[in-house]
Design goal:
This protein is an alpha+beta fold. Helices cover about 25% and strands about 30% of the residues. The protein contains three helices and seven strands. Strands 1-2-3-4-5-7-6 form a seven-stranded mixed beta sheet, sandwiched between helices.
């Protein structure tokens, strides 16, 4: 379900994923996040629930990067599945939902970045048709452990 960026369940899941980043990288994700970027029509933040508890999050925002021959690009942000619900296909379901809703909003390409200490994320994106791109962007554009991906939306 679509929720505001500041929804209490969204904030709770973002805090959990930030704790994982601190554990894996020594600090949280420092990318600027403007809540307005996740307000339709420029973007949207989604939560998935199981038994009334938020267990998966994902969002996209319009970024206008020139990738794969178009500037009609959206960026995946805050993909996360709580540990107790991982390995059940929820990330793949959320990613497909993000792609479909971004495409419905007129985007042609989805982009994202992740880090070298998130092999499960890299595996998900590669197995979902994302290709690595060399031209990074944003806060981690020149970070040696940052991986950047793009996918043309069907």
């Amino acid at each position: 379900m679509a929720v505001p960026f500041g929804h209490p369940d969204a904030v709770a899941l973002m805090e959990r994923v930030q704790a994982i980043y601190v554990e894996r990288y020594g600090s949280g994700d420092e990318s600027p996040m403007d809540p307005a970027d996740f307000t339709p029509p420029t973007g949207v933040f989604y939560l998935g629930y199981r038994d009334g508890v938020a267990v998966v999050s994902g969002a996209w925002r319009s970024v206008g990067l020139d990738r794969l021959g178009t500037v009609r690009t959206a960026e995946v942000k805050r993909m996360y599945v709580v540990e107790e619900a991982q390995r059940q296909g929820l990330a793949r379901i959320m990613l497909a939902h993000l792609e479909a809703t971004a495409r419905a909003a007129g985007h042609e390409v989805m982009v994202l970045n992740t880090g070298d200490r998130q092999p499960e994320a890299i595996s998900l994106y590669e197995s979902s048709g994302y290709d690595r791109v060399d031209d990074g962007w944003g806060t981690y554009a020149c970070h040696p452990g940052a991986y950047f991906f793009a996918k043309r939306l069907p």
